[in-house]
Design a protein that fits this description.
GO terms for molecular function: transferase activity. With about 900 residues, the protein is α/β, with parallel strands linked by helices. It is built from 27 helices and 37 strands. It folds into four domains: about 280 residues, Spore Coat Polysaccharide Biosynthesis Protein SpsA, Chain A, CATH 3.90.550; about 80 residues, 3-Layer(aba) Sandwich (Rossmann fold); about 190 residues, Glycogen Phosphorylase B (Rossmann fold, 3-Layer(aba) Sandwich), CATH 3.40.50.2000; about 100 residues, no CATH class.
C-alpha cells in the first residue's frame, strides 16, 4: 500500500487523516504492508509523522522535495521503486477501507489471475461519503460497514453518500510491470491528471475491453452511457469490483482550490490531452526495482535493455568490456558500485568479454546471459551459462513425466510449429515436403540426409566444440561423405541464410533456395555441427547427428558422430528419436525456460561486411526471468478479453441500441434463410489426406469429388469496430502427403462481436451409404476461445430437425482436431428436401473478435474390418489426429 503525503504546518488535517483513515481495516492481513511516501513535508512535522507510522508498524520514506510542488506521481514512483512486494496499490490519506477490504483484494488477485498476466490490474471504486456519512461509518460495526454503505450507495441515499465513482486512481498493479511502464509521468506537477494519463496507458496495453470510439476525446464524466471516449472503458475496471461489492470510502473534507497545488491543473489537463492523442510511443523511461540492487550490463540492446525486463535487474550500469583490462580492475569496479550481478548478451563476443565471463564464474558472481533461443520467437535469460556450457539444459531440469494437460500442450505446440512459415532467419516460401523432394529429384524411397550449415565465425561454431572437432573438421567430414554417398542416399546441403561463401560439394544437392521447414519435413535424418536446426528437428520427430558440442544433445534423440562412416552406419541402421524425451525437452524449453515474443528485425551489414539480422525490438508475449513466476504480456494487437455479451456492458446497451440491435444471449441459434453469402469454387486436389489421421482410416474419395461448394453465412454486430470476412479460397499449406492440405479462412478484425457464423461445405449425396460408419476430420485454430458445433446439416421438410449429427467442440488459439464419427441410417437423409445435398457445417455460436482458420477437411470411411478401430475412444482418436 503506497500512500502519498505532504503535510503542512498551517493545516493539520493531512496528519489527522493519516492517523484515522488508511488503517481502518481491522482485518488487514500480515502480508499487506504500508509505505507512506512523504513528498517534502516540513522538517518540523517529520517526528510526528514518524511516530504515528512507528506505532502502526508502517514504513516511512521521506523525499527531500520541500522546494518543489507536491507531486503525487513522484510519491507513487518512489514507493514502487522502494517497495519489495509483488503487487502495489495506491491509496490516498482521505480514503477509508472497510473491514476485510485488503483480504478481498488479495482474493481478486487470485480470482482474476493477476499473478500470470503482467498488464492486468484492478481499479477500486469510490463511495464518496457526506460529513454525516463519515460519522455514521465510524459508529458502524466493522463487519457491517462494507455492505451497509454499498447499500446506501445503490439506493441513492444522498444524506450519507454524496456520489459514487468507478473510474478512480486507486489501482493495483504488478509492481515490476508498473516500473517497466515508467510509472506516473512526473511531468505532471501539482493537482491532477497524472493518474489518468498512466491508467490510460495501462488500459491500452491491457486491452481487456473493446476500444471505444473517439478514444482520445475528452468530454463528459465517468457516468457516460454511450460507449465512446476513453472514459467508457476506463470505468469498466472499477465497475468490475463495484459489481462484487468491493469499494473504498472517500472521507468528506473541506476542499480549497486557491492554493499553489491546484494552480497547475489547467497545464496538467493540456499535457494529458496531448499525451492521450499521441499514443504510447513516448512512455517515460522504465524505473528500477531498487530491491534488486545494481547490475553491470554489457551490450545495450533489446535483449538486455528491454523496458519490460529492465526493472528485474535493478539499477543498470552499462559499460564496455574494454574498460576492464584486468581481473583486479573488474573487482574494484564491482566493489565501488555495489554490483550484485552481471548481464551479458553474448559472453563470447570478444576476448575481453570472454575474460569477464570467466572471471564471473571464478568469483561465483551471479550473472545472466540474454540471447535468442532455438525455437521460433524465443529468447532466454540463463543464469547458468551460455548454450553448451550451461547446466540449464541438464536432464534433471526437464526429464520428468508430463501430465495429460502438459503433453497435450506441447503436442499442439509442435503441430503448430510444423505448420508455421516462421523461421529463425529469412527463408524462401514453403512448398511442402513432398513437393520439395520432387523439386530436388529425390524419390520417396531415397534416404535423405539434410545438412544444415552454419556460420564459421559464429559463437556456437567457434567455442562450442568437442576437443579438436572444429567446424573446419566438420566441413572435411562432409567432403568425405560427399565422395562416399551410396546409391539410394541423397545428401541435401543448405547454407546459413546469412552466409555468402559456402564450400563446394560434387555429389551433395544444394537446397539454398528451400525453406528449412520443408527440408525438415522431407528428410529422414539431419546432420549438423550444432545448429539450432537440431532443436527444430525434434519438432518434426527426426533424428539428428551432431559433430560439435550441442546444448540439446540427448541420448535417444540425437547423437554425436566423429567420421563420415558414422553417418553411413546411421543410414544403414537408422535410429528413431524417443518421442517422450522430445516432448519433455521441448515442453521445458517452450513453457519453462524460454521467453516468447514477436521479433522486429532488420538485415544489416557489419563493418567486416558480414551480414547479420539485428533484433530491433521484441513484443513480449511470455516473460520468464529466473527466480520469478512466468508472466504473460498482452499486446495491443491482442483481441479483447471481454465482449458485448458481458453484463458489464448493460449500462451501454440502450444508448448503443441503434448500432447493436437486440443482443440477447443465445438468440438466432441457426441462420435464417436468405442470409447473404460469399461463394468460391472448391479446389481440385489429389487425395489430400492419404494416410491421415491414422492407420484405421482410409480417405473415402478425393476432396473435389465430395465437396461441391462452400459458403459462409454470418451475423455480427458492427457497433464496436468493424466486421470483415475473407473471401473463401483454398490456402495451400506445406504439410502432409503431396503438400495438398488446404484451408479455408474465416476472419474478423478485432473488436467485433459475432452472434453466430456458419461455414458450410456441400457434400455429394452418393458419398454416404446406409449402414456404414464415417468420420469427418478437420483441423481448426482460433485466436479466442469459443464453442463450435460441427456435423451434418440437411435441408429437410418443414418441421424436421435439420441437424443429422452434431458435436460441440471448444476451440482456443491452439490447433485442434475437429472430429465427427457417425453411422448412416435409413433416417439420416430420409426427409431431405428435393434437390438438396447434405452439408458439413461448422457453426460458431457467439465469440468476440474471432479469427478462425479451418486448416484441413476430409471425410473418412471407417471400413467394416476397422470396426474395432471405430470404437477408439475420443482421446486415442484425437492423439492420432494431432500426430497426423
Amino acid at each position: 500500500m503506497i500512500i502519498p503525503l505532504r503535510a503542512s504546518i498551517d493545516r493539520a488535517d493531512g496528519i489527522d487523516r493519516l492517523r484515522r483513515n488508511p488503517g481502518n481495516d481491522s482485518e488487514t492481513p500480515s502480508r499487506v504492508h504500508f509505505l507512506v511516501v512523504d513528498d517534502g513535508s516540513p522538517a518540523s512535522l517529520v517526528a510526528e509523522i514518524d511516530e504515528i507510522l512507528h506505532q502502526r508498524g508502517w514504513s516511512y520514506l521521506r523525499l527531500p522535495t520541500e522546494d518543489r510542488h507536491f507531486s503525487v506521481g513522484r510519491c507513487r514512483n518512489a514507493g514502487a521503486m522502494y517497495a519489495r512486494s509483488d503487487f502495489i496499490l495506491f491509496q490516498d490519506v482521505d480514503l477509508i477501507p472497510p473491514a476485510g477490504f485488503y483480504n478481498r483484494l488479495l482474493a481478486e488477485i487470485r480470482v482474476q489471475g493477476l499473478r500470470g498476466t503482467a498488464s492486468s490490474f484492478l481499479m477500486v471504486p469510490f463511495i464518496y461519503l457526506t460529513e454525516a456519512g463519515v460519522g455514521e461509518l465510524r459508529r458502524t460495526p466493522p463487519e457491517d460497514q462494507a455492505q451497509l454503505f454499498h447499500h446506501y450507495a445503490l439506493m441513492g441515499d444522498t444524506s450519507r453518500v454524496e456520489r459514487i465513482s468507478t473510474g478512480t486512481s486507486v489501482t493495483l498493479h504488478h509492481r515490476r510491470y508498473y516500473l517497466s511502464r515508467g510509472g506516473n509521468n512526473e511531468g505532471f506537477v501539482g493537482w491532477g491528471y497524472e493518474d489518468l494519463e498512466f491508467i490510460n496507458r495501462c488500459i491500452r496495453n491491457d486491452g481487456r475491453f473493446p476500444r471505444p470510439r473517439e478514444w482520445a476525446t475528452e468530454r463528459g464524466n465517468f457516468d457516460t452511457v454511450d460507449y465512446s471516449t476513453w472514459k467508457a472503458s476506463y470505468r469498466l475496471y472499477g465497475d468490475t469490483l463495484f459489481a462484487k461489492g468491493i469499494a473504498i470510502f472517500h472521507a468528506w473534507h473541506p476542499v480549497t482550490r486557491d492554493g499553489d497545488y491546484f494552480k497547475r491543473s489547467a497545464a496538467n489537463r493540456k499535457n494529458f490531452l496531448e499525451k492521450l492523442s499521441g499514443g504510447l510511443e513516448a512512455e517515460p523511461d522504465p524505473l528500477p526495482d531498487l530491491s534488486r540492487g545494481r547490475t553491470l550490463c554489457f551490450r545495450k540492446n533489446t535483449f538486455t535493455a528491454h523496458r519490460d525486463v529492465m526493472p528485474y535487474f535493478g539499477t543498470l550500469h552499462f559499460e564496455s568490456e574494454t574498460e576492464f583490462q584486468t581481473k583486479a580492475r573488474f573487482m574494484d569496479y564491482l566493489g565501488a558500485h555495489g554490483i550484485r550481478r552481471v548481464l551479458f548478451h553474448n559472453p563470447y563476443s570478444s576476448e575481453a568479454m570472454a575474460d569477464i565471463y570467466r572471471w564471473c564464474r571464478e568469483l561465483g558472481l551471479p550473472y545472466l546471459v540474454a540471447e535468442r533461443g532455438a525455437l521460433n520467437r524465443s529468447f532466454f535469460f540463463d543464469p547458468e551459462g551460455f548454450l553448451a556450457d550451461s547446466t540449464s539444459y541438464a536432464g534433471e531440469r526437464w526429464d520428468r513425466p508430463l501430465d495429460a494437460a502438459e503433453r497435450a500442450q506441447v503436442v499442439d505446440y509442435m503441430a503448430e510449429e510444423r505448420l508455421a512459415n516462421q523461421a529463425l532467419e529469412d527463408q524462401p516460401d514453403r512448398i511442402g515436403p513432398s513437393a520439395l523432394r520432387r523439386k530436388l529429384g529425390i524419390a520417396e524411397s531415397d534416404f535423405m540426409i539434410f545438412v544444415a550449415l552454419q556460420r564459421p565465425d559464429d559463437t556456437a561454431t567457434r567455442f562450442m566444440t568437442r576437443g579438436n572437432r572444429t567446424y573446419a573438421r566438420f566441413i572435411e567430414l562432409l567432403t568425405e561423405l560427399d565422395a562416399a554417398i551410396p546409391p539410394g542416399v541423397k545428401v541435401v546441403v543448405k547454407k546459413h541464410p546469412l552466409e555468402d561463401d559456402v564450400p563446394a560439394f560434387g555429389n551433395c544437392i544444394s537446397a539454398d533456395d528451400c525453406h528449412v521447414a520443408d527440408l525438415l519435413g522431407a528428410c529422414n535424418s539431419i546432420l549438423t555441427f550444432n545448429s539450432g536446426v537440431g532443436v527444430q528437428a525434434m519438432l518434426w520427430g527426426k533424428f539428428c547427428l551432431l559433430y560439435g558440442k550441442a546444448f540439446y544433445q540427448i541420448d535417444g534423440v540425437n547423437r554425436y558422430v566423429d567420421e563420415a562412416r558414422d553417418v553411413l552406419d546411421h543410414v544403414r541402421s537408422p535410429a528413431k528419436p524417443d518421442q517422450t524425451l522430445i516432448e519433455r525437452f521441448v515442453h521445458y524449453l517452450r513453457y519453462e525456460f524460454y521467453s516468447i515474443g514477436d521479433f522486429r528485425t532488420r538485415a544489416v551489414r557489419m563493418p567486416t561486411n558480414e551480414r547479420m539480422t539485428a533484433t530491433l525490438d521484441i513484443a513480449i508475449r511470455e516473460l520468464q526471468v529466473p527466480g520469478f513466476p512466468r508472466l504473460r504480456h498482452r499486446q495491443r494487437d491482442s483481441l479483447p478479453l471481454v465482449g458485448w455479451r458481458a453484463p458489464l456492458f448493460d449500462r451501454y446497451r440502450h444508448a448503443e441500441g441503434t448500432r447493436l440491435g437486440d443482443r440477447a444471449p443465445g438468440a438466432a441459434e441457426k441462420p435464417p434463410a436468405g442470409v447473404e453469402c460469399t461463394r468460391s469454387a472448391a479446389p481440385a486436389l489429389a487425395d489430400a489426406f492419404a494416410g491421415c489421421p491414422g492407420p484405421q482410416h482410409r480417405a473415402l474419395t478425393p476432396y473435389q469429388e465430395f465437396v461441391s461448394g462452400a459458403r459462409v453465412a454470418y451475423k455480427a454486430d458492427t457497433g464496436v469496430g468493424r466486421f470483415e470476412m475473407d473471401r473463401i479460397e483454398p490456402v495451400a499449406l506445406p504439410f502432409g502427403p503431396e503438400s495438398a492440405l488446404h484451408g479455408l479462412r474465416f476472419r474478423t478484425v478485432r473488436e467485433a462481436d459475432i452472434e453466430w457464423a456458419l461455414i458450410e461445405f456441400e457434400i455429394c449425396p452418393d458419398v454416404f451409404r446406409v449402414g456404414e460408419t464415417y468420420e469427418i476430420v478437420g483441423f481448426m485454430s482460433s485466436r479466442v476461445q469459443l464453442e463450435l458445433r460441427s456435423g451434418l446439416y440437411v435441408n429437410r421438410a418443414p418441421g424436421a430437425d435439420p441437424w443429422c449429427h452434431a458435436v460441440v467442440h471448444t476451440i482456443d488459439w491452439r490447433l485442434r482436431p475437429i472430429r465427427n464419427r457417425f453411422t448412416v441410417t435409413q433416417e439420416t437423409f430420409a426427409d431431405r428436401a428435393p434437390g438438396t445435398a447434405p452439408k458439413f457445417f461448422l457453426q460458431l455460436q457467439g465469440g468476440t473478435a474471432v479469427d478462425v482458420s479451418l486448416w484441413s477437411f476430409a471425410v473418412y470411411h471407417v471400413t467394416s474390418r476397422d470396426t474395432a478401430a471405430a470404437r477408439v475412444g475420443s482421446e486415442g482418436t484425437e492423439q492420432a489426429a494431432s500426430a497426423a
